[in-house]
Amino acid sequence: MGENIQKIIIKGTLLLLGAFFCAPVLFLLSGSVMSRYELGESLLPLLTDGERLITWKFFPAYPTFEHYRKILFQTPQFFIVFWNSMKITVFILLGQLLIAVPAAWAFAVYPFRFRKLLFTLYIVLMLMPFQVTMLSSYLVLQDLGLMNTHKAIILPAVFSTYPVFLVYRGFCDLPKGLIEAARIDGAGEWMIFVKLGLPLASGKILSAAVLGFLEYWSLIEQPLAFLEDQSLWPLSLYLPEIHLEQAGYSFVASIITLIPAMFVFWSGREYLEQGIVASALKE
Amino acid sequence: MVFVLLPFLDVVRRSFLTAVTEEWTGLRNYGIVWGNQAFRLAVKNTVRFTLVCLPLLIGVGLFLSVQLSRLKEIQFIKSLFLFPLAMPAATVVLIWKMLFSRQGFLNAGLTGLGLLSEEQLIDYMGTEAAFWVLVFSYIWKNLGYTMVLWLAGIFSVSSDLTEAAMVDGAGRRQCFWHVIFPNLKGSLYTITVLSFLNSFKVFREAYLVAGSYPHESMYLLQHLFNNWFVNLELDKMAAAAVCVGMVLFAVILVLQKLWDREERR
Q1: Least enclosed by CB within 10 Å: which of A158, A160, A282, B32?
Q2: What is the pLDDT of residues B81-130, one digit of tens each?
């Protein structure tokens, strides 16, 4: 009896806390359908220095899609920024797939000299924050004349070591004997890679893609440092630039930014968790 | 590899040269960086941030995970906590402004409860409290991540062990401390390392909410690097990057050594 009550209390508390963690989305949703007048009323205290405090209604008195209409049909600028984000994210993910999967395969299957050393180096590099490698990336990009282009964001990210590491974990589950057997049966290396390796690691590849998408969709540091031209900026830099006076616009833009991330999050939840767990396993 | 390692060696070389003329200066850049007030402030804040956040995140994460592991709805609740991870930093900015401004929700709530009178209202981003806003953002974002890792650790402890302990008459609490906890040390190491490295990403929220020069209680190394970059002070950056990189490397190695020793016992 006591056991059950305890469980209910725990469940209630956790649910409440979890809901609290997700609450920002409710703010964004309600704000995005609020009329301009109502938004002004609610947010005015933030703009002026008066004594009034902020108020908020999660169910607006006069819901409207005015801001959505405006942003979708009358703001070409928003589209440019949105596609900048899409382009950067998609190209990074594709590039990573092309580089990381074969690289991981090589690490997992072919013993070569210095493999151990190289792999340790890989992990260390994976762990270094952007600030430490910022200057070196800058110097390379400068030499290649890529500064202030999308390539400056995409290229370094394509060669990032994190997906290699993650996919490598997937390939490691492949029993060595199986590869030997396939070789004896006359399968070419390419066949082994496609028929044995890829299906086995597909979960980890998806994990890498989900984690990668969430990471690159909200990229801040790199574009901030390497893109000067505002027309090249991704959503993550553009959004905060919108002034509070245009709050409706800002809310809708945030919602639209959130949608792809949410989509990937919900459809890839399982892989996201697998990815997190796999990245925590020690070599 | 070529893209990452060679350039970094170049940075190491540059840390001994002047920025423009590339003359040999020995350790002078390092001297300048360590004497730099902003650098000291940033190091102090970053260290303080890490020391506050890591134990808090790891502890709270473990506590919640243990509670959660007893329930049936693990998947759903875990997703709720993971959710902030998927929220792009940029979409949070607006909410943070609404929460932590002088006339924002936090103050509104506190006055509503009668805990705060109108003269005491503060703008959280412009005072010492900014540091705690940053801590909160970090916990909010990373708690789900930590919980996933802890839960994986908890469930990897075989249920035979815990059941055996239960049969022997161990209480739930005893069971946790003597059977499950000793088996979680491996998880502790990886969670510490990953949380530590993720703590560098809190710059996103910090920068978007407060800009390049936030209140001094939350001026982190990341801000400093960014500002030096904007001003093209490359020699300082090189020296500082080498220092920070080495410190991080050392921390990881030490943690790993500790863990290895633990395992061999």
Answers
A1: A282
A2: 888 888 888 788 888 878 877 777 777 777 777 666 666 667 776 677 78
- Smallest CA–CA distance, residue A200 to chain B, in Å, is 21
Q: How far is B96 from chain A (nearest CA, A)?
A: 9
Measured between beta carbons, which residues in chain B are less than 8 angstroms from residue A273?
78, 82, 148
> Chain A residue with minimal CA distance to B123?
A46
Fold topology of A72-279: MetI-like fold (1.10.3720)
Check residue A50 and give its pLDDT.
61
Beta-carbon contacts of residue B129 (< 8 Å; ≥ 6 apart): B122
**For chain A, counts of helices (H) and of strands (E):** 15, 0
Question: Under a CB-based contact definition with an 8 Å cutoff, are residues B65 and B150 in contact?
Answer: yes
Q: What is the residue extent of each domain of chain B?
A: 39-234
Cβ–Cβ under 8 Å, residues B89 and B205 = yes
Which CATH number does B39-234 carry?
1.10.3720.10
d(CA B122, CA B136): 17
Q: Do B67 and A262 touch (CB under 8 A)?
A: no
Q: Is A48 exposed, middle or buried (0-12, 13-18, 19+ CB in 10 A)?
A: exposed
